[in-house]
């Protein structure tokens, strides 16, 4: 089993022979390249050319994040899976507005369902989230892509408002980014960018093109299909991690820096990453596959379903938490 | 379109798998079965001639005695029927090229061998299979999922089930 590697401090990646090292003030550390499937850099990390060629040869992408934890870009190995047929069909489903709306609506249905599942869980635990549930239940997802996007916007808005009822600590004012001004916003931003990269790496293992998306506009700087896929899983992965970390006091005031906006400090990031990784690796028995799959792998399956949809093999039905 | 032995094998095992494979949608991205197969191959027959090319297809091994023999070396006998047809297809090819041969399936791990002879019926069947393969592969959609015990070991399993 291969895992992502997260680097939270500053340093240099270099190669000696077939070994990859991370070097910083504290010293030189060999990295187990056979057990890594991606490297995520949250500190300032530079790569010597030997290191980058080794990583590309091994098919290991390197993702870079800025000090706020936002995704900046990736060093990507040459695409290994390529199917003209899938990419052509994938694009056709984007360029035909009706076909695009079908997929976009399905994605938002998934988001809605997973958010409701999460809120109902907290309702059962005695949190006063009933009004938010009602607001979200009211959303009827239909129309063109613009309408579907406003459905989506309202759903997220109600959901984020409900955080104040769920969280024992910290206040959720309004969702703000660049830079986040509250702890919760910092946590959401950090978690979302982690999930974005995880979704991207699952897409990378399929034939879908990461830039052709349905709910999000294909953006110039980001692989927007990863945004589409990640959105469905945010309530299942990111927010559940946040609620746990905050309500169990695993993250407190002192794990943040409060200078330009509010950001997790290095220790805070490590705590978050550990919990996030554990969440991704959590497994669940899949009713159709009849095997245990990890939460992370559920994103791969989402890609498979999209492939089948664009090929005309089976209509896409987005992931809805069944447990 | 060029029909290959693997395609004949998939045709017998699963027509949907054949479609995916022939339309270049492969799943064995992180599957090490292929290298294992190669490894067994090299260990078991290291001193004999391997991979002879005849026209469009390459065979695992050909020995020329009174009659040519085409050997097909396999990791396990789990897929017997599809593999048999793959070999029949090779025999049919060889015959077309004027090199009539018998076939032997070898399972080194299980110390098992099986001899195959191309009969007129089999020839006929192979010809029909080739035509059918061409038809299936050129269709715009993959054939529907038909669940069978073989699915569990298939690289498309997860793609098919979701
Ligand atoms: S999983 Fe089953 S139906 Fe799908 S391609 Fe494989 S054998 Fe065929």
How would you characterize the overall build of this protein?
- The complex is a heterodimer of chains A (323) and B (162).
- Chain A is α/β, with parallel strands linked by helices and 323 residues long.
- Chain A contains ten helices and twelve strands.
- Helices cover 48% and strands 17% of the residues of chain A.
- In chain A, the strands form four sheets. In chain A, strands 1-5-7-8 form a four-stranded mixed β-sheet. Chain A has a four-stranded mixed β-sheet with strand order 4-3-2-6.
- Chain A is globular.
- Chain A starts with a strand and ends in a 12-residue tail after the last helix.
- Chain B has 162 residues and is α+β, with helices and mostly antiparallel strands.
- In chain B, the strands form two sheets. In chain B, strands 3-4-5-6 form a four-stranded mixed β-sheet, with helices on one face. In chain B, strands 1-2 form a two-stranded antiparallel ribbon.
- Chain B is globular and about 50 Å long.
- The two termini of chain B are 30 Å apart.
- In chain B, 31% of the residues are buried.
- About 8% of the residues of chain B have low confidence.
- Classes of the chains: A alpha/beta (323), B alpha+beta (162).
- The structure holds iron/sulfur cluster.
- The site of iron/sulfur cluster has 11 residues of chain B, from helix 2 and helix 6.
Q: What's the topology here?
A:
The complex is a heterodimer of chains A (323) and B (162).
Chain A: E1 3-7, E2 11-16, E3 19-24, E4 27-31, E5 36-41, E6 45-47, H1 49-57, E7 62-65, E8 71-75, H2 84-95, H3 97-124, H4 130-138, H5 145-166, H6 183-204, H7 224-233, H8 238-247, E9 256-259, E10 261-264, H9 266-281, E11 283-285, E12 292-294, H10 295-311
Parallel strand pairs in A: 1-5, 2-6, 5-7
Antiparallel strand pairs in A: 2-3, 3-4, 7-8, 9-10, 11-12
Helix pairs in contact in A: 2-3, 2-10, 3-4, 3-5, 3-7, 4-5, 6-7, 6-8, 6-10, 8-9
Chain B: H1 5-13, H2 15-22, H3 33-44, E1 52-54, E2 57-59, E3 61-64, E4 68-73, H4 80-96, E5 101-107, E6 112-116, H5 120-137, H6 157-161
Parallel strand pairs in B: 4-5
Antiparallel strand pairs in B: 1-2, 3-4, 5-6
Helix pairs in contact in B: 1-2, 1-4
The structure holds iron/sulfur cluster.
Residues 14, 16-17, 145-146, 150-151, 154, 156-157, 160 of chain B line the site of iron/sulfur cluster.
